[in-house]
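DM from R.C. (forwarded with permission)

"hey, sorry to bug you on a friday — could you get me a structure for this? deadline for the figure draft is monday and I only need the backbone to look sensible"
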Amino acid sequence: MDVTSLIAWSRAQFALTAMYHWLFVPLTLGLGVIMSLAETQYYRTGDPFWKKSAQFWQKLFGINFAIGVATGIILEFQFGTNWSNYSWFVGDIFGAPLAIEGILAFFMESTFIAVMFFGWGKVSKGFHLASSWLTVVGATISAVWILIANAWMQNPQGMVFNPETMRNEMHDFWAVALSPTAIIKFLHTVTTSWTLGTFFALGICVLYLLRGHHTDFARRNLKIIAPFGLLAAILSAETGHLSAVDVAKNQPMKLAAMEAIYDTGKSTPDGHTADGEGVGLGIIGVLNPSKQQPDDATPSHLFSIEAPRLLSFMVAGNGTHYVPGINNILEGGYHLPDGTVALSTEEKMQRGRQAIDALNAFRTARKAGDSVAAQAQRQILEEHFPYYGYGYFDSKYETVPNVPLTYYSFRIMVGLGGAFLLLYLLLTWYAYKRNDKLQSTRWLLWASLILTPMAWIASEAGWVVAEVGRQPWTIQNLLPVQAAISKIEASSVIITFTLFALLFTIMLVAEVNIMRKAIKSGPEQH
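My reply, with the result:
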């Protein structure tokens, strides 16, 4: 078995499935709110226009929802097929949120989505409205538990490793479910999904205005879409900032890769930069492709515009806060917020190997019935277990993620987020103050149409930052990818990768075609 090829293809297959799945999930969350807002207007006013609007958005929601569920099921199956060592090692923890998601959210969604689609005229207006909102709540709850599982991979806590079973066992459920990382990740993911959903609806309305069809529908619905999009964009920016602060605290290597920072000098014992200059935030730049290793002398950037001290200020609220670069993390020696000194990566690797050796010795001693030796090895394991995952690396450079991909993805996400916020400011003003002029303001309509597909690019870029920036870890500092894969042939993964790529592409083309026909028919043909 070619392990390198197996790892590469397993990662590629999971990335393929996750990124296809993520085309549909945020649209479900965002479009669900818009359809429910339209139905709320119908409930309040009794205007048949809003009933047609709600039914139109619901039809598009239903098409997207079905495809999203199909890709999500395939995604979860891969934990057992391609990442069985991972599933064994942390299944007691990771499986709990996914089980709750299946039991609670799926049942809730499947119950109320039936009423939402088939209950018009059969149940009261109030109950139907409640069903629509509860469908959205169910979809959001589904996202909650998946994001809790993902947040635990970014910042594992609430568990204890049992060397007798070779498994991590949940010690504190609420530490897993309510960790700051989980809360922030949920808030940021949901608010960015709202932004994407509003752009989908915005793009449809803009098309109608540009073509002169269903213009009343477009102008009136924009009074819902534009302010909700503005709120979502503002919340996305704020939760994104909180997410970056959390990354700085728990995943400093990811932050260093996001900013392509290699060396920030020495730190003072109280956590400030030794030179008092702070660490700047890169606004825009071009990385040097000639830089091969983090610690070589090649300049990291060909071009860069930087805001002095801004990264230090954003991370900790003061302009001299110390933020380690990639080389600082590799070499260690800087002061951590708790007053201790950071270990070098090579020291962590050494301690990780001691943990692995102690685990093997513990199992051997236990099998031989030598309880004294087993207890001694268990103590060594517990002492060095925080570095267990580092024991699988042969070189410290393996712990550095793909810097260019993380760096550029982060700037795409943030840059587009700023453009979205500005656009929705203008659209909200036009929707309420110059609604009659909106159709004739062609530059604004074209800007909205151009930025609509950019919402998907920004969303996917955000997940690239989150997941590529965490590499090479499946679980941060605990389990690297080479220790998480299943023992299968790479050729098998290549076959399934090809089949999934073909299947998902067919599903995407089918959805786009069905969506296009529904949009072309317009809200009257609900």
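R.C.: lifesaver. Strands lie at 159-162, 167-170, 281-287, 301-307, 473-475, 479-480.
me: no worries. DSSP finds 16 helices and six strands in the chain.
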